[in-house]
Structure formats: structure tokens, C-alpha cells
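Action item from last meeting closed. Structure (595 res):
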């Protein structure tokens, strides 16, 4: 009853027509030979894997879950075969550099791939979800010796990686990490052998039976290191040592979770485990940020994946389910006394159009952000690289929070389409509601993303990076204003750009006299910026999709794209004013709770 078919044509439409990604690729020597046809074939093959190989393991994997024993963790039936097919297809190497054995394709295609994987089976996707981040850490911070041991295996996916941060007393406050690293001999330095002792919790894929080895990247503390985050180092600790013997890495158990049952969330113990420092001593958090930022964007794509899966299943069910006679029928409807498809009823039309409008806009923003990642790394113009990096810095916390919140909220709203059946496991939507909830929590809760946005991305530079993005919105408003019939979109984006600028001015002004103001309204700032970006996306879709000329074969017709974008601006965007108004009222009371 629950299916997933990757919307490859719609994805390609956004990449090629709305965002004009091929023009960006042509300007980057690393991607100069990539064209829309090749990108389309990559997406098509990814869609086939997601829909035909991975999606059939979703419901069964959720029902079976993972199994722990002292010998290790067993993943659900079918997960190993799917992962082997994933590796054999070369998918882990998609966006890795050719010099390391990768395919050298853009991050934007990798992000599209992971959207499909999350939509097909979120629990399974958790295992390779951290793989690219682990590759980045080893590539950029590992010594030649560590690269020789581990890089190729991470690129191929033959070995998986983990990110070991959290401890029972140190959830989001990594400065409280206690795990110890002891240098075996000599002075602490990059690549020096260490032994690692301590416990970590909530480690996704901390143990599994998909790969013969696991590369753990462990935040730890050297003897005599400064307190807090400035004293954290990073160690690479394998499950299996290079000589083939089992390391002192133990999974003490797995969590019994609300959702993503197919993902082993492990309690890990390091008992004098052998490893190596990776990166400079006491600079572990800086090295780990490569992995954390990659993980945040992958989590953002989980939100888009849940949006898409909920949308396409809800639309299909609403067309098939017959209930009551609609007050007004579409002109194309068959005559008769009824009952009619529930898709005819206003309440359902609002829900379905909400799902579609959010999906279109979030996917557009996500692919834009991924394309900027590529430009930040590969564009030959230094100024362009710097501008792209600045955009990504601001967009990353917004994307992670906005997409995961809308992914979960939309799945919850979509459940209503099924009525009572939505509460029943066999119909699939209840699993999506459960699975999607975790994405708002991990890789930095959405509240922490909001704090990061206001403190580090908006205020630390006085709003300079933010104003460059505001200028992008203003430019889109100008382009829409020059096109007959797009005044609605031009006004919407211009208003959001102005609201963001006014909010930024207020935040900067209040910082000197009320240091808590930005923290009190951080969630509203992020939501307001998110809505401004949604307005930008709907406007861009409307401007570039006004007719079916040069349409991607199989993509929705232009009038459907326009219908979705117009609905977003008219019905969903007004919510932005609620958030902006709170930001603009510094005196709003937020009392302490009585104790």
C-alpha cells in the first residue's frame, strides 16, 4: 500500500531548468564534461536502486528491527543485500575525488541520491549517511599513512564510518566529553598512535553486519588538555586493526527507538582501543566539523525525502479513496451522484497542495545549497568560491531545521488523508511519521541550529553574509517584476527580503543591550529566514516554468508547477509574518519557570 518512485523528471527539471545547474558545471573545470543528459542518467539509475532494491526493505525492516547480541548487531533481512548492491553500483564514490578513487561528480547529485535513499528507507540510509563525511575528514586531515589504510575503503563503501560524539553527560554540550586518548609514545601530533577509553551513546551504525570493518571517528581528550571544546582531539579507531585482529571496541547494546528501527543506534565502549590522532591535537572539533556539516545537509535531505514520500502516497490515495459528494466538482470529473474522490474536497485539496508546495520549494533550496557547495570547492573564481561558502554557512542550519520540521509536520498532516487507516501500520504513513521525527533532534537539534544561525551566522559578522543572501532574494524579486503575471511572486519575495533585513537590524541593535534577545527569538528568526527562502524558491519556479517549452520529458506540466508555487505564496507564506513580528518585539516576556 506504501510505495516510492523517485520523481527523477521533476528533480531534473529543478536542476536544469529552475536552477540552471549545467551552466554552473560548465564554469567549473571539475565538472565541465557533465551535462544534463548524463546527470539525468545518474538520477535515473539512482531512482531505480531506491525504488526497486531499497524501498521493498522499508516496512519489513521497520517491523523486524535490529538485533543485538554479545557477538554484534544483526541488521534486518535484506539490508546486507541492498548494501552490497549499493557498493557494487559505485554509489558511495559518487561525489568523491577521482584522485581518491571516486567518480568526481557534483555534491548536488549526491544530495539528490540521498534524498531518494531516505525516501525509500530512512533506517537503512543511516548506515551510509555518514560515509561521505568520514571520507572528507580522512581526506583533509589524515596523514598519508592513514589515507593509505582507510581512504580507499571509505570511498568504495567497503568499510563504513561513524561519528562518535555524544556521551551520557555530554549531549549537545561537547565540552563535557570525557573519553580519554593516551599517546602510545612520543608527543601528541597528527597520525600519532593512541589508545582510546570511554563510552559513547546514540552512535548510528556503531555496530552492524553490512561491512567487515567500521572506521570510528571519536571525539576524545588528551591528558592535560584544556577544559571545554578547546581541549578536544579526534581519533580514528577501527573496529578491526590493520593486522586483522579485533580492536577494543564493544557495542554494549542498541536503543529501542520510536522510529528508524532498521538503524542500529548503539551504546559504544572503547576499552583501550588502538587508534590514531587525526588532525591536530586539541583541534578535534574543527576536524569533526567537516563531518558534522556534511551530516547536517544529509539530514536536511532526509526531510525532503520524507516530504516526497508522504506527498506522492497521499496524492495517490486521495485520488483512489471515494467518500461523499463534493460541493463542487472539477470540470473534468465524471457525472453521477457520488461518492467522489476525497481529493475533490477542499480540506484535502489544501493538505495535498501544502505537501506539494513544500516539497517543490524545499527541494529547490536543497539543490541550490548543494550546488553552492560545489562552487565553494571547485569554482575557479576565488570571489565566487568565497561568496558560495558564505551562502552555504548561512543556509546549512536553515536547511537542516526547515526541511526536517516540514518533513515531519507534513508526514503528520498527510496521515489525515488516510483518516483511521493512516493510524494502521499496513498503510505506511505512520512509519514515516515515526521515522521523520528523529531528524529534528540529531546532528544538532533544530533549536541548536537556530542558535547557531543567529549567533554565528548572522551576528558574528554583523550580518554581512546574510545581506548577500538578502540581495539574492531582492534580485529574484526584480526578475519576477519584469515578467507579466508574476507580480504576486515579486511582491512576496521583496516583502520577505525587507522583513529579513529589518529583523537583522533589530538583532544587531539589541545585541549590545539585551544579550538574550537573539536566543529568545532564535527559532522565529530561523523560521522567518526559512519562509523567505521558500518564497524565493516558489518565485524562481514560477519564473522559470511558465510554459512547457524545453520541458524535461516526464516532468509535471508548467501549470502544475505554477499552481503549487502560487498556493505556497498565497496560503503558506503568510505564516512568516507571525515569526518576523516576534523578532521585531524585543520586549516580549519570556519568564523563568517557577521552581
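Sequence:
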Amino acid at each position: 500500500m506504501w510505495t516510492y518512485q523517485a520523481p527523477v523528471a521533476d528533480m531534473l527539471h529543478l536542476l536544469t531548468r529552475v536552477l540552471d545547474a549545467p551552466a554552473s558545471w560548465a564554469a567549473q573545470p571539475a565538472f565541465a564534461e557533465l551535462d544534463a543528459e548524463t546527470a539525468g542518467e545518474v538520477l535515473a539509475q539512482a531512482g531505480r536502486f531506491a525504488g526497486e532494491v531499497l524501498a521493498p526493505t522499508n516496512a519489513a525492516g521497520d517491523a523486524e528491527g535490529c538485533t543485538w547480541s554479545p557477538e554484534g548487531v544483526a541488521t534486518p533481512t535484506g539490508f546486507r543485500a541492498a548494501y552490497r548492491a549499493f557498493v557494487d553500483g559505485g554509489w558511495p564514490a559518487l561525489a568523491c575525488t577521482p584522485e581518491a578513487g571516486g567518480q568526481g561528480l557534483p555534491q548536488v547529485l549526491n544530495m539528490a541520491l540521498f534524498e531518494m535513499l531516505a525516501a525509500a528507507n530512512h533506517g537503512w540510509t543511516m548506515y551510509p549517511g555518514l560515509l561521505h563525511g568520514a571520507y572528507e575528514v580522512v581526506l583533509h586531515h589524515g596523514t598519508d599513512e592513514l589515507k593509505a589504510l582507510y581512504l580507499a575503503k571509505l570511498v568504495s563503501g567497503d568499510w563504513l564510518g561513524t561519528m562518535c560524539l555524544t556521551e551520557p553527560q555530554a549531549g549537545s554540550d561537547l565540552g563535557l566529553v570525557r573519553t580519554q586518548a593516551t599517546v602510545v609514545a612520543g608527543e601528541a601530533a597528527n597520525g600519532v598512535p593512541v589508545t582510546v577509553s570511554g563510552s559513547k551513546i546514540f552512535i548510528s551504525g556503531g555496530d552492524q553486519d553490512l561491512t567487515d570493518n567500521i572506521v570510528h571517528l571519536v571525539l576524545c581528550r588528551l591528558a592535560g588538555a584544556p577544559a571545554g571544546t578547546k581541549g578536544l582531539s579526534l581519533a580514528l579507531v577501527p573496529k578491526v586493526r590493520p593486522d586483522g585482529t579485533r580492536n577494543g571496541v564493544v557495542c554494549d547494546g542498541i536503543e529501542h527507538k520510536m522510529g528508524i528501527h532498521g538503524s542500529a543506534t548503539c551504546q559504544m565502549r572503547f576499552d583501550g582501543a588502538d587508534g590514531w590522532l587525526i588532525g591536530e591535537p586539541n583541534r578535534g572539533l574543527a576536524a569533526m566539523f567537516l563531518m558534522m556539516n556534511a551530516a547536517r545537509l544529509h539530514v536536511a535531505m532526509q526531510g525532503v525525502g520524507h516530504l516526497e514520500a508522504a506527498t506522492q502516497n497521499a496524492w495517490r490515495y486521495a485520488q483512489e479513496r471515494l467518500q461523499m459528494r463534493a460541493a463542487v466538482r472539477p470540470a473534468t470529473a465524471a457525472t453521477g451522484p457520488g461518492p467522489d474522490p476525497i481529493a475533490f474536497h477542499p480540506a484535502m485539496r489544501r493538505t495535498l497542495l501544502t505537501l506539494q508546495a513544500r516539497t517543490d520549494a524545499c527541494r529547490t533550496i536543497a539543490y541550490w545549497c548543494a550546488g553552492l557547495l560545489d562552487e565553494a570547492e571547485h569554482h575557479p573564481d576565488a570571489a565566487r568560491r568565497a561568496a558560495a561558502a558564505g551562502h552555504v554557512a548561512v543556509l546549512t542550519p536553515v536547511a537542516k531545521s526547515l526541511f526536517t520540521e516540514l518533513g515531519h509536520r507534513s508526514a503528520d498532516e498527510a496521515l489525515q488523508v488516510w483518516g483511521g487507516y493512516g493510524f494502521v501500520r499496513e498503510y505506511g504513513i505512520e512509519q514515516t511519521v515515526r521515522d521523520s521525527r528523529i531528524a529534528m533532534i540529531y546532528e544538532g537539534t533544530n533549536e541548536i541550529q537556530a542558535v547557531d544561525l543567529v549567533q554565528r551566522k548572522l551576528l558574528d559578522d554583523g550580518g554581512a553574509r546574510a545581506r548577500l543572501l538578502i540581495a539574492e532574494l531582492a534580485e529574484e524579486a526584480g526578475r519576477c517584476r519584469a515578467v507579466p503575471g508574476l507580480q504576486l511572486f515579486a511582491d512576496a519575495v521583496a516583502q520577505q527580503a525587507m522583513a529579513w533585513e529589518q529583523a537583522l537590524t533589530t538583532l544587531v541593535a539589541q545585541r549590545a543591550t539585551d544579550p538574550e534577545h537573539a536566543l529568545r527569538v532564535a527559532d522565529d528568526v530561523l523560521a522567518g529566514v526559512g519562509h523567505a527562502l521558500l518564497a524565493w524558491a516558489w518565485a524562481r519556479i514560477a519564473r522559470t516554468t511558465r510554459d512547457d517549452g524545453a520541458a524535461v520529458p516526464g516532468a509535471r506540466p508548467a501549470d502544475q508547477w505554477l499552481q503549487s508555487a502560487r498556493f505556497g505564496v498565497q496560503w503558506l507564506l503568510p505564516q512568516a509574518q507571525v515569526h518576523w513580528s516576534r523578532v521585531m518585539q524585543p520586549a516580549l516576556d519570556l519568564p523563568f519557570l517557577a521552581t
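Note appended to the action item: The mean pLDDT is 96.
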